[in-house]
UniProtKB/TrEMBL annotation:
<protein>
    <submittedName>
        <fullName>Aminotransferase class V-fold PLP-dependent enzyme</fullName>
    </submittedName>
</protein>
<keyword id="KW-0663">Pyridoxal phosphate</keyword>
<dbReference type="InterPro" id="IPR000192">
    <property type="entry name" value="Aminotrans_V_dom"/>
</dbReference>
<feature type="domain" description="Aminotransferase class V">
    <location>
        <begin position="28"/>
        <end position="398"/>
    </location>
</feature>
<dbReference type="GO" id="GO:0008483">
    <property type="term" value="F:transaminase activity"/>
</dbReference>
<dbReference type="InterPro" id="IPR015422">
    <property type="entry name" value="PyrdxlP-dep_Trfase_small"/>
</dbReference>
<keyword id="KW-0032">Aminotransferase</keyword>
<dbReference type="Pfam" id="PF00266">
    <property type="entry name" value="Aminotran_5"/>
</dbReference>
<dbReference type="InterPro" id="IPR015424">
    <property type="entry name" value="PyrdxlP-dep_Trfase"/>
</dbReference>
<keyword id="KW-0808">Transferase</keyword>
<dbReference type="InterPro" id="IPR015421">
    <property type="entry name" value="PyrdxlP-dep_Trfase_major"/>
</dbReference>
Length: 407
């Protein structure tokens, strides 16, 4: 394995889970379902509950501090995304955010307008949009290659025209793992007057993207998969957010952050999300160098994960009894590795647990993708997902376990 840009011991020192006695020897390979929580997030959450668990934005000190802590999260996540704070909205989950968002679009689009969805997405960024067909909206499907599960831009070009008002696509599939060319997708959509809604849930744990570079109009991710609390984060272009029908209380119509999140999540969790950005800055410090800390952290995390996934992919290429979903080159994918096996994925995951490997099997809410690839969703895949805090030793532990359970 090539030299790692991030010292694993320094990185893991910022995650209390790695000091938890019950987790010693357990290699965590289910990060796509939810990551460990960074210490700055836990510290912020604990302080809020202990010292400022009051109604925020009031006139007394504890209330003022609570509101300031929440405002800081809007500012810090916006800074990480390279956008203004008006872009940022917090909701209970990404599924809830897309549900509300699709309902807003249903009141904005006109019968005969078209939208594009994919069959590579998690159902949260697919099903909610597909329901708009009941309102007279034409729903077009950008389909994956049934052998590889990959999305090709030629497939998008074939269904993209001036009737399309929205393109909903994943930055990275939670099963295929390939990083999709969002900047090119956005450019194509904008060329016909459409906007893009990008599901970043499976990409964001590997570094929050620069939205100015991506050109996405809407970007969503789940904070609990990015070392934070269990809520959803949605970045949306402010002029688009203002154009969509208000989904909140009528008297909050002029308050941008309330218009698309009618059921706001826990105040303490909102305050804690800003500490995700603090942690990313810590990653940048560990990586060294100069320049924008979020860009440095993103690059270091990406380089770390590419180095870690390469030996696993090399090993899997030699296994004739597994079918790897997505590309087998480390540079074009996230370290979310899904395997189609003769046995149900969950069955093999249970055996891996005996080796101290925490993994999972199933359809992971990507039923349409598996059906397109000829895989029974009830059979599912074995998914092995990790992030920058995974160690080379854990990769070795995983490979040894696979060698026993997939001879």
């Amino acid at each position: 394995m090539t030299a790692l840009p991030l010292d694993p011991s320094r990185i893991r020192a910022h995650f209390p889970a790695f000091a938890e006695p019950s987790l010693v020897g357990q290699a965590f390979f289910e990060n796509a379902g939810g990551s460990y929580t960074a210490r700055p997030v836990l510290d912020t959450l604990e302080h809020f509950y202990r010292a400022t668990k009051v109604q925020p934005y009031g006139v007394y000190p504890a209330s003022i501090e609570a509101g300031e802590a929440m405002n800081r999260s809007y500012e810090r996540i916006a800074e990480a995304f390279n956008v203004d704070p008006d872009w940022i909205h917090f909701g209970p989950s990404t599924s809830a955010n897309t549900y509300v968002l699709a309902n807003a679009f249903g009141g904005w689009l006109k019968p005969g307008d078209a939208i594009i969805v994919t069959n590579q997405d998690h159902e949260a960024n697919s099903g909610n949009w597909r329901r708009l067909a009941a309102r007279g909206i034409e729903v077009r499907e950008w389909q994956v290659d049934p052998q590889t599960g990959r999305l090709n831009l030629t497939g998008l070009d074939a269904i993209l025209d001036a009737k399309v008002r929205l393109v909903a696509a994943p930055h990275c599939s939670n099963i295929v793992g390939e990083i999709n060319p969002v900047a090119e997708i956005s450019a194509r959509a904008h060329a016909v007057g459409a906007v893009t809604a990008i599901d970043g849930v499976s990409y964001a744990p590997h570094g929050l993207p620069d939205l100015a570079e991506l050109g996405a109009d809407i970007y969503l991710f789940s904070a609990y998969k990015v070392y934070g609390p269990h809520l959803g984060v949605m970045a949306i272009r402010p002029e688009l957010a203002r154009a969509l029908p208000n989904q909140g209380h009528y008297f909050n119509d002029a308050k941008l952050r309330y218009r698309l999140t009618p059921a706001g999540p826990d105040h303490a969790q909102i305050a804690a999300v800003g500490a995700i950005a603090d942690y990313f800055e810590t990653v940048a410090e560990i990586a060294g160098g100069t320049g924008n800390p979020f860009a440095r952290a993103r690059k270091a995390m990406r380089d770390q994960e590419t180095a870690l996934v390469r030996p696993l992919l090399d090993y899997l290429r030699g296994k004739n009894n597994v079918r790897l979903v997505g590309p087998d080159d480390a540079e074009s994918r996230a370290p979310t590795i899904s395997l189609i096996l003769s046995e149900p994925g969950a069955t093999v995951a249970a055996r891996l647990a005996k080796h101290g490997v925490m993994a999972s099997g199933g359809n992971f809410y990507a039923v349409r993708l598996l059906e397109a690839m000829g895989v029974d969703p009830n059979h599912g895949v074995l998914r092995l997902s990790f992030v920058h805090y995974t160690t080379p030793e854990e990769i070795t532990q995983l490979i040894a376990a696979l060698d026993v359970e997939l001879p």
